[in-house]
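USER: Note each token:
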Amino acid sequence: MALSVSAGLALVAAACGGGDDSAGLPADQQTSAGGGAGSPAGADGAIRLGILGQCEGPFGGFHEDVVAGTTLALSRFAGATPNSTTSALEGFSGAEVAGTPIELVGVGCGDDTADRIVQEVRRLVEQLGANVIVGPLSGDEGIAIAEYAKANPELTVFAGISGSQEQTLQVQAPNYFRFYGDGAIWSAGLGDLLHHQEGWDTVAVIADDYSFGHTSAAGFVADFCAVGGEVTHRVFPPLGTTDYSSYIAQLPNPDEVDGYFWAVGGTGTQAALEAFVNGKGDLTGDQHAGNLFFNPDLAQALGTGIAGAYVGGFATLPADVRTPEIEEYLAAADETWETIPGSLSGNEPAPPSVAAAFGFFYGYYTAGVALVEALEAVGGDISDLDAFHAAISGLTLDLPYGDISLDENRSGIVDVGLSRLALDDSGEVVQETVAIVPGVDQTFGGTFSPDTPSPGRDFPACEERDLPWEGSAIPVVDGVPQS
């Protein structure tokens, strides 16, 4: 793929700021409905939708992607028509389920901080009258919005793609629903593969020092240690670090450890790896693994030596896995808009399927599908919120990248696709799926519970334990699962 994830992550959608201008809609479409957080439906009986994106900070380049994800779901299944053929941020019209209209009241502009996202959700709910929220994007934001939902029971929230564990496992807001995995789930099976197949016995971990980085690292640590591996170092640079040299210095040298696991994301992935090259020597793919932020385009800046590195899962699967359902989904994106300036295209216009194939877009898409199916289940009537929320909790979504249902804490039970960066016949680095770990839930085989500490710098401990997927991942050959 010639489009650069790392370049897209480095861009910030400067068109969105704070306050009312951050709604992401033209001024004449930023409606005020009254009702506020205590009103389960707008004054006209409509579903009043607010979408929480992130147009500033480390993931600001994904603002277009996430709004487009929900818009595509409503376009496919609720009759919505985007107001622009080249940007989802212009909103949509005509969405309706079971006779009940869905109106987009605004788009929130987060910056990866809890304070900012709470300001944005309060604007959408308390000023613009949103009664349903889709989002947010990032880890600390998810915890803050789950707490806000718990304090405002008349609101319904479908999480976007925020990967922190706490928002569902610890907060447990009955009106907050997450139809995707958390960061720990996306690491399931990776440690098992590296220990048993690649012979890693020792590993050093470097991860962003915030809730998603902690959660992503926690899943890998739990998985690798469960099968007998040892984590020798854990290093946590702050999210948004620009100079990683001092953190790389805290890692062992390549001859002192079998491998390194990276959970550094946003604008930091490339910068951290470049600092490793400067401080420790050339990258060799057989000694590195990462979470979702590892991608083939790192090779453009770091060289093809990154080939061989293993990558944890995300909401979608690498492009080598194609099914009729995936093809139909990607084609629908290209039919809905002419172009989308998503992050994977450096926020420049590109075929919408480019953005749709990545997990940020897809997480918000699954939220939109869940909203539509839940409304259908209650005949479009959410006046009985208990019935509406029970309908959401009971959904099993038939989605392009696999079915998703919810656990008792309203968090997704998902299949996890593990992949590897490899050289194709032309010498280009590509991403190939190697295994699928089915049916992983947030307890991670009993490792995590509402009573365990939140993932952090020291938790979980490195301990051997039985995990239900150990040795049972489904191999994938040439994009085809072998079971």
Observations:
- The first strand starts at residue 47 and ends at 54.
